[in-house]
Write a structure and sequence with these properties.
Oligomer: homodimer
Largest sheet of chain A: none
InterPro entries (chains A, B): Globin-like_sf (IPR009050), Globin-sensor_dom (IPR044398), Globin/Proto (IPR012292)
Largest interface: A-B, 39 and 39 residues
Number of strands of chain A: 0
Domain Globin-sensor (chains A, B): 24-192
Protein name (chains A, B): Protoglobin domain-containing protein
Order of helices and strands of chain A: HHHHHHHHHH
Strand content of chain A: under 5%
Chain lengths: 195, 195
């Protein structure tokens, strides 16, 4: 956790409680086949991934930068990528790797998923970083589609720190479940009445 | 393809064209890291998976049946599972396995993804099968979350027909990409203005 990280408010007591209930979360856990073994596998994964955070972000940002429809999310008022906006989001994206692997799925976690959700949606995009952007929201279709690259790129990084293929596979699938669960939660403001 | 399959209209010339453009699809393909190699891998996967369709559906329906929040989708007017509705959807779900592996991502494919989308959403749920259901839509969060079980359960079936782990892995990831891409397309009616 890095309390000095720009716009990072996970542990801010002022964060609004989530409207997602414990029952909603239990059902989502069931839908993604979540178990305590996944939580444990992600904690092991954190030991491997967190020291590689900058290298992981280099891969992800390289991918975003190579795709105009993705880098458009980080446009300033002139439509060109805003370097300060990219840098601020990068810091929080790195912290997200650690949080995804180590945070309990409790009320605070749910509250921060809501915050991440509205920061992707028209509700609040660009406000955290004070950006005047041509991008008013991250399209829902790409939020969902990015489950794939955010998942598949992590396997090589797990392999860097774990030689047993079965152990890598366990951590890899725990990561896949956690990413998909996160995107399901982040979709809420996009479809409040049919979420 | 089974033209006698109840409610299956993939090849119906009357199917409305999709509003998803070729440019939209190209961007989604890029977001899920899609390549020609994935299309080829899925065609190989079809040879393995299609003969196992009923066994795959047994696993998926077993999972749905074990989860009240999922089986609720198939409720009749009294809130209890409707056997005819379950059976009709099962037939199309089996055909979907073949279609996901073998159909080109062309205008017809996009049009039928739109049709599948509205059949999950309030727009058209229950109409195809003439069901009076207590379920008015499949919640978007579970549509997204189910990417995980629909993906991870397929690996054992691939292994049944392919002994080379690398070849299984290639087909497995092509499947993951295709499933995620499909869900991204199916999310459109849930969030038409921010899709």
């Amino acid at each position: 956790m890095n309390s000095a990280l720009s716009g990072y408010t996970y542990d801010d007591p002022a964060l609004a409680a989530s409207g997602v209930t414990r029952g909603d979360l239990a059902a989502l856990h069931a839908s993604v086949l979540w178990s305590d073994a996944d939580a444990a596998a992600l904690r092991r994964a954190a030991d491997i991934l967190v020291p590689q955070t900058e290298a992981i972000l280099d891969v992800w940002y390289g991918f975003v930068g190579a795709n105009p429809h993705l880098v458009a999310t980080f446009a300033g008022a002139d439509g060109a990528p805003d370097a300060a906006y990219l840098a601020d989001v990068r810091g929080r994206f790195g912290q997200w790797i650690a949080d995804l692997c180590t945070r309990d799925h409790d009320a605070r976690w749910l509250a921060y998923q809501d915050e991440i959700a509205v920061r992707h949606h028209t509700t609040k995009k660009n406000r955290t970083d004070g950006v005047d952007s041509t991008s008013a929201y991250v399209p829902l279709r790409h939020l969902i589609a990015l489950i794939v690259p955010i998942t598949v790129t992590i396997r090589d990084f797990l392999t860097n720190g774990e030689s047993d293929p079965a152990a890598v596979d366990t951590m890899y699938h725990a990561w896949m479940k956690a990413v998909t669960l996160s995107v399901a939660l982040w979709a809420r403001p996009y479809s409040p009445t049919t979420w």
